[in-house]
Write a structure and sequence with these properties.
about 270 residues, alpha/beta, Spore Coat Polysaccharide Biosynthesis Protein SpsA, Chain A, 3-stranded mixed beta sheet, globular, binds uridine-5'-diphosphate, binds manganese (II) ion
């Protein structure tokens, strides 16, 4: 008998919009030929009808509750408060994005049946096999690069390598809901503080879509493993950056429809001289 997989790719879906995102992500992971488990963490707000297609795709569905956080914490991190206290000036979040839901990612530390997991945001797609990440240490993540060199100081929590552990999870809950704690970019700000010695992955493990127009010289289809549609989502109709990002949006739609990856090298970036 073959051993059950001790590795998993994990994403999070708390509403039907992110189920669309996860559809493209799972389709893209299948194309990489990975044998790791594909796990969808979902909240009770997602319907069976939204989840059924993932069972057909061989995913493991795990319902998770929101974290047991204080009322004061939840109030500080309500959508209106996060947007007012730490405004998003570089891009815009869609209406279906609820900051508090992001913290449900931390539930993956409870999945101790896995030795090592790779979390990937539901708004990302994988363009080549990245199974070697399962041998990278906790906590590995790529920098939050989408505008300038200063971005290298921060990590982006759309892709990371973690080792599930009940003990780590318990410590996280304590640190997360410390008195008056406010995490302006939710799980991302928290994880950076919780793992101050985080290991830096190359940016190509989490290439943020804005790099396409802000730093086109960094764009290299031969190196990009994960493409992450941070801020505006490719399934939103006519979002403010749609014209600038059209080739990347088309790529997402092809993967969402279950089509094979197009010839990426042929997708020239008009910004590169
Ligand atoms: N997410 C979710 N529902 C929400 C907010 C977030 O399911 O209301 C999950 C989803 O996997 C999403 C991730 O948490 O990809 C992080 O949010 P998002 O990707 O929108 O943030 P960004 O990458 O734009 O900072
Ligand atoms: Mn994201």
């Amino acid at each position: 008998m073959t051993q059950p997989s001790r590795h998993a790719y994990i994403t999070l879906v708390t509403n039907p919009d992110y189920a669309k995102g996860a559809t493209a992500l799972i389709n893209s992971l299948h194309q990489t030929g990975t044998k790791a488990d594909l796990v969808i963490l979902h909240t009770g707000a997602v319907t069976r009808a939204d989840l059924a297609p993932f069972l057909d795709k061989g995913c493991r569905l795990i319902e998770v509750a929101h974290l047991p956080l204080s009322d004061a914490f939840n109030q500080r991190h309500a959508r209106g408060n996060v947007h007012a206290s730490a405004p998003f000036t570089k891009g815009r979040k869609p209406d279906f994005h609820t900051p508090l839901d992001n913290f449900c990612k931390l539930r993956l530390w409870e999945l101790t049946e896995y030795d090592r997991v790779v979390f990937i945001d539901a708004d990302a797609v994988v363009l080549r096999n990245i199974d070697r990440l399962f041998s990278y240490p906790e906590f590995s993540a790529a920098p939050n690069v989408y505008e300038s060199l200063a971005d290298f100081h921060r990590l982006n929590s759309g892709v990371f390598v973690a080792t599930p552990s009940k003990e780590t999870f318990a410590r996280m809950l304590q640190a997360l809901d410390a008195p008056d704690a406010f995490w302006p970019r939710t799980d991302q700000t928290f994880l950076q503080q919780f793992f101050p010695d985080w290991h830096g992955l190359p940016v190509y493990f989490n290439m943020l879509q804005y790099v396409w127009f802000t730093m086109p010289a960094l764009w290299d289809w031969n190196s990009i493993s994960v493409l992450h549609y941070q801020y505006e989502k490719p399934w939103e109709t006519d979002h403010p950056k749609a014209a600038q990002l059209q080739p990347l949006i088309n790529l997402w739609h092809a993967l969402h429809a279950g089509k094979a990856l197009p010839d990426l090298a042929a997708m020239n970036n008009p910004e590169v001289a």
